[in-house]
# Entry
Amino acid sequence: KTPAFTNASVEKYLIPIQLNKITKSIFRFMRQDAVIIALDDTQIAVLIYDATPLLEANAVIETQLKLVEKQARTDGLTQCYNKTMFNELLAIEIKKSNRHDYTFSMIILDIDNFKSVNDTFGHLVGDYVLKELAAISAQNIRETDIFARWGGEEFCILLPQTDLEKAVGVADKLRRIVAAHDFGEAGCQQCSFGVAQYSKDNRQSDLVRHADEALYHAKHNGKNRVAAYLDGRQFTLWP
# Structure
């Protein structure tokens, strides 16, 4: 004769009471808390409480929290990761790389002559180019790779367990895909790529700087090219 309890967060309801006939709700049926009390060997008393308002409020709060979390880690225009989130994931990858003794690489890419797109066609077309570039790039990398907007017309890619040679291959594949893509009113666009491989003696800022210096080298040696950072600030260009 000990009371038994059911909780609305576990059991949705004991008795299906449709709310759309009573009041507007995000739920179809009333959410219920219930207390079941044994009166004797053959009878029980069931007390049912309407828990819908509380669970609705919790659902709204959870939805808003997920929205805020998404906004904090994604770029509003392209819907890929933003720079803050990329840096957090990069820090995690460095720890994993050091712990398990494997390497990884990073790519920074930049749309060549992007200012002329905005100047010629306007910022709406420029925004379309950014979104389209983000979409086709994300579609042509592995699910385990991390793609993010670095800022302006720059994007970056984190490639776990990928050495420099393979990362260059990824960058050159993306370079060719972008160059062959039709960006609508903006026509054809091209990108330059900087690639760097992580080494244990490097800091996070070193890896980013190396990839950025490689990008700068590609930009100043013809554009629409891939440059890789080698030891001693040497660079190799493709094609």
About this structure: The two ends are 82 Å apart (CA to CA). The chain has a mean pLDDT of 90.
